[in-house]
Amino acid sequence: MTPALLVSGDPVALGRATIVVVAIVVVKALLAFGMLMTAVALMIWFERKLISDMQNRVGPNRAGPFGLLQTMADGIKLMFKEDLLPEGADRATFRLAPFLSTVPAFLSFAIVPVGGVVHLFGYTTELQVADPPIGILFLLAMSGVAVYGLMLAGWSSGSKYPLLGSVRASAQMVSYEAAMGLSVAAVVLVTGSLSTRAIVQAQAAHIWDWNLVRLAVIPFVIFLAAATAELNRPPFDLVEGDSELVGGFNTEYSSMRFGLFYLAEFMSTITMSAVIVTLFLGGPDGPVIHLPLLNWLMPIGWFFLKTLAFLFFYVWLRAALPRLRYDQLMDLGWKVLIPAALGWLIVIAGFRVGRVTGLVTFAVAIVVGAGMARAFAVGQVRNRDPATSSSTSGDFR
Amino acid sequence: MTGVLAVTVPDLATFVVAGAVVLASAIGVVVARNPVHSALFLVATLFGVAVLFVEQQAEFLAAVQVIVYAGAIVVLFLFVIMLLGVDRPEGLARDPLRGQRPLGAVLVLVSLAEILALARLHWATGHGTAGSTGGASGNVAALGRSVFTAYLLPFEITSALLIIAVVGAVVLARRPHRVSQQQYGARDERMVATERSGTGRSGTEPSGTGRSGT
Description:
The structure holds 2 protein chains of 2 kinds.
Chain A: H1 11-14, H2 19-54, H3 70-79, H4 91-107, E1 117-120, E2 123-126, H5 136-156, H6 160-191, H7 196-202, H8 211-214, H9 218-231, H10 242-245, H11 255-280, H12 294-320, H13 326-353, H14 355-384, H15 386-392
Antiparallel strand pairs in A: 1-2
Helix pairs in contact in A: 2-11, 2-12, 3-11, 4-5, 4-11, 5-6, 6-9, 6-13, 9-11, 9-13, 11-12, 13-14, 14-15
Chain B: H1 9-31, H2 35-55, H3 59-84, H4 100-120, H5 140-148, H6 152-173, H7 177-183, H8 185-197, H9 201-204, H10 206-213
């Protein structure tokens, strides 16, 4: 019986566990960690620089060339700041929360295939930390755990605004997780496997095989919106809502504990962009020149380019869109994204059976969707304004 | 079959560590004074059990355990605890039920005896049902196939049961419209009156008119 750890899906671990095999796994994990940390530092700089360009200002330009070392300067400053512990705080939980937020953000990156397969010293290994059979479910599990970081941070601060922020966070993240899971289910349905490697391989043949095209864009849009809400990034950043909640769940945090939340936020933005690329844009798929070194370097390049495009998109969203109101957020999640994701999943299942079944399901889905939209509209009017509803429908009084 | 299974060192180490985590946090759930801490210990217990599932090569079960129980149910527990503000230590001097401690001890002994009996005998679980489906893709495919073929009816009945529960919860939580209508009846009259006179329109919907204007 081989040790059934989470690395068991990797071909390296399925063979005999020699020292070289263990070394490869360790090196991969360390490489991924180092890459993510560097990427976070660069991402913070990228976001600040880009958003200042969009807002017509200069942005960080003092530390290093183009202000590249600004993140490092900020990090060093944070480390030497006083670590405050509020009077009413629940001490153990207060200390635990930042880690609960950072660790899942890092762990979810483990399942992302960065490149193809490489042959090293007679061993073949995939360019991803782990390829467990549960694959993409691991992402959902980790984003489920990430809720705890925010929730407990707000509660344990023993202060009003952080508590409000964390209650918002938990409601928001639990709601959007459903839509996210349903759009992932569409991807799994056409792939026939949960493994991220299999998902990427199924999209490798042609650009028309990318899930973005194959699933007709809708699951992609739903996943993108749900992931943005999951990350608490603008326009879904009600958790932080500076103008309403001071700073949200992290108001009472200072020093490196605050830094950890910052780190977690940017790390999960990068991870989520990478996951979107994996699920819908073919991961490391792209035209490759078949030469010894370019053979495996070019897929990695494609992967980075696609991920960078999504990081740009997230910064752009932040510059362009105002924050949603809380009821708009919940309406979008429960009344638009979840029904749309569910309906589209059924339509895709119909098309998997056959063309006629697919078209019939599509028609039924449109009719049901229209009926549901009408019902929501009527309910909205009644809830908002009792006077108009009673005068228009006339069934009260 | 009582033969000793071949156990490797990593297997044993994983089992011991995960088992210790499960046991310690299960005790923590009961002992902790603060409900939020109890909920956190419950999460740790669920994680330990998930690790044990992985150890038994039931990866799908482990993932679902974390997604559903840790990711949704305990979050809702915490949500309710925080919203209702019951996150204070509770007085445990008096038992709410008379004689619950001796009864609890008896129940513990009975279930312990049952578990030990099940571990020794195979009359309930059958021989080697677990861990024999292994393979590179794990047991996800096998599980999916059996749920949608052999166990389709129980699966669908369970889903119907859950839907019924959801509908019931919605009905219970729904605001009674007629009562609120009577309650706000007087105010409605006034609003209709101001609307007719044409002065209250911008007052009732400030955001709508403001946004369309800009």
